[in-house]
Amino acid sequence: MAPGIIADSFGEQSPVLHQKANGNGALNGVMSPDVREDYEGNYQFAPIEEAQVSRAMIKRYFDMMYDRAVSDVVIIGAGSAGLSCAYHLGNTQPDLKITIIEANVAPGGGAWLGGQLMSPMVIRKPADRFLDEVGIPYEDEGNFVVVKHAALFTSTLLSKVLSMENVVLFNATSVEDLIILPDPVDLTRQRVAGVVTNWTLVSLNHDTQSCMDPNVITAPVIISSTGHDGPMGAFCAKRLVSTGVVKELGNMRCLDMNRAEPSIVNGTKEVVPGLIMAGMELSEHSGMNRMGPTFGAMMASGKKAAIEAMKILKK
Ligand code: 48N
Predict the structure, then answer these.
(1) What is the pTM (predicted TM-score) of this model?
(2) Which of 74, 84, 87, 102 has most ligand 1 atoms within 8 Å of CB, for mutation?
(3) Can you say which residues are annotated as belonging to the binding site?
(4) How many angstroms separate the CA atoms of 5 and 147, rounded?
(5) CB of 76 closer than 6 A to ligand 1?
(6) What is the pLDDT of residues 137-167, one digit of tens each?
(7) Which position among 14, 23, 77, 169 has the lowest Cβ density within 10 Å, counted as fewest Cβ atoms?
C-alpha cells in the first residue's frame, strides 16, 4: 500500500490526513486540498478525525453552559411568546446575556401549526406589525392577517433569535424548579433568582431512577412562558402554588378571543419578584380566557415581557 494512504474500514483507500493532528485532534483549521464538490461521481470531503467532531461540539456546548451559569435574563419556554420576548430583548439589548431554556428538542411550542393541526396561522392586528418587523410575509384579511404556514413564522423568528450573538438556547433542557432566595433589597420578601435545570429526558424520568440531581442557572430576571398544555405546561405557575409563594392557580377560562388576547398582553407582568409571566401560562396563573388558534397576543405578550424585564434590570 502506497505510503501515506490509510485503508479505511471498507478496504478502500482514502486520502491521508494532510496535517498530523496536534494534541487535541485539531488539524490547525487548515482545509485539506483534496476537497472537491464534484457531482459527477468524485465528490471529496475534507478528511476528519472522528474525535474532532466530538470535541467541536463538547467544547462549544460546555463553554456555553459554563458562561451562562450566570445570565442576565432566563426565558423559560421557546414558544411564540418566549421567542418574541427573546427577539425584542436580544435586538434592543445586545449586551444582555439572554438564555432560553426549552424542554423540547424542537423549540417553537404550539406555533408550528395553527389550530386543529391545520397549518395557516392567524394573527389579529396590530400584532401583524411584529411580522413586518421580523420580515414574515402574510395575507391581509382586514382585521387580521394569515401566515401561510405557522412554521414559516416560527422558523423565521427562530433563525433571527438564534443568530443574535447574546442569545443562547438550551433545548431538550427543562426547568424543573426555581431558585427562590430572600430579596437582597428587602429581606422580608422572597425573590426568584434563577432556575434549576436538567436534561428533559431526565426530568421526565425522576420516577424511574432516583438521585439524578439537577443543575442551576442564576439571573436577576426570569421570564416564564411555558404555555398552558404539554407535559410541563404552566410549569412556573404551578410551582409557585406548590411552594406556597402563590395561594392558588387562577385556572384558564373558556375560549373568548376578544377578551383573551388583550387580557394576556395587558396582564403580562412580574407576577412575583424576579419572575415575569408571559403568553398562555398567564391564563393558568391568572384565570384568563383562552383565545384558541390566534397568535397575536403571544407576540405582543413576549414584547411586553421584554419591556417589563428592562424596567426591572434598570432599577
Ligand atoms: O407555545 P407554548 O405552549 O406557549 P406560548 O405561551 O408561547 O404560546 C401559546 C400558544 O401556542 C397557544 O397555546 C395558542 C395561542 N392557543 C391558545 C389556546 O387557547 O389553546 O410554548 C411553551 C414552551 C413549549 O415549547 C414547552 O416545551 C416549553 O415552553 N416548556 C418548558 N421549557 C423548559 N422547562 C419547562 N419546565 C417547560 N415547560 C414548558
Answers:
(1) 0.92
(2) 102
(3) 81, 102-103, 110, 175, 213, 228, 280, 290-292
(4) 54
(5) yes
(6) 999 999 999 999 999 999 999 999 999 999 9
(7) 23
